[in-house]
Amino acid sequence: MAKKLIRHELVEITIPAGSTLTRFQFPDIPNLRNSHLWALQVYYGPIDNVTPPDPAVNQLITKGIQTGLNVISNVKLRSCFITFVNYGGKEFLKQAPALNFQTQFAGPTGPIVPMEWDTKTFVGQKVSYPKSYLEFNAPPAQPTESTVFMCSILYSLPFAEEKKESGYAFSKQG
Predict the structure, then answer these.
(1) Which residues contact 31 (CB under 8 A, 6 or more apart)?
(2) How far apart are CA 91 and CA 124, in angstroms?
(3) Taking the domains of the chain in order of start, what are their residue ranges?
(4) Spatial CB neighbours of 10, under 8 Å, sequence gap ≥ 6
(5) Torsion angle of C-alpha atoms 64, 68, 74, 76, degrees rounded to 10
(6) How far apart (Å, rounded) are the C-alpha atoms in residues 44 and 71?
(7) What's the predicted TM-score (pTM) here?
(8) Residue 164: pLDDT band by 50, 70, 90 thresholds?
(9) What is the pLDDT of residues 122-161, one digit of tens each?
């Protein structure tokens, strides 16, 4: 059986301070155009069950690397649903709870443990990201601080492109 070639793209969707919106579109990401989706992971910032908040204990990823904004809390993540649309306009993943795709878990008193083995996988669907979106059951925005929804998309290029790129080597650089 052929091995899947996996690539990674970190995606950040800004939730502006004070926004009353409940729907946020995925951005158009050039690397993901015409790609095949294999897996999705979502991340959250503060955990609500740790008092007092301790950045060393209650969060794994605190800020987005692209935006520098705080990652949404797991409380907000619980009210988030993801819809992916294919290039034909069909919603093949409709209102899936974002919590299903998070792979960080905290013990009752311990630090967060990444559970990479729990990554939810897909079968190589092609996603029209600019038509895909997040929905929240209530506006997720903080009154005075913009935050970010952050996820990892694991993907591959169409087979012919992957094959072309696999021919690069130290002696044959592009």
Answers:
(1) 7, 9
(2) 15
(3) 7-159
(4) 65, 66, 150, 151, 152
(5) -120
(6) 6
(7) 0.83
(8) confident
(9) 999 999 999 999 999 999 988 899 999 999 999 999 888 8
